[in-house]
Amino acid sequence: MTSPDFDTFSSTAKASGFDEVLERRWEANTWLDTHTHPFDVQALVTEGEFWLTVDGQTRHLRPGDAFHLARNVAHAERYGPQGATYWVARKN
Q: Which Pfam families match (predicted)?
């Protein structure tokens, strides 16, 4: 299965009720301690790698991997040696 392009990702997310879609790029070896967001998240990794920790469980995410987070869910992020890029849809 091939990954969608950004326009397809964006239109699909908006059709699902997400109101904001953007590309996030993170620098190499960035760490974000436990935090929350006031919006739901649906995302697709497009470059690099990172580790997402929720409820003590860590997922190693690479290009083609998707993840979802409900609003106000505590999580931490650690980005790999090349950083990471992902497309993210937010439902505010």
A: Cupin_2
- Residue 31, both tokens: 């760490």
75: β partners: 35, 54
Q: Please give the helix or strand (H or E) that residue 91 lies within, else none.
A: strand 75-91
pLDDT at 3: 76
Q: For residue 80, count other CB atoms closer than 10 A to its CB.
A: 17
Q: What is the mean pLDDT of residues 8-34?
A: 98
- DSSP letter for 73, please: -
C-alpha 65/C-alpha 82 separation (Å) is: 17
Q: Which CATH class is domain 6-91?
A: mainly beta
- In 1-92, alpha helices (H): 6-15
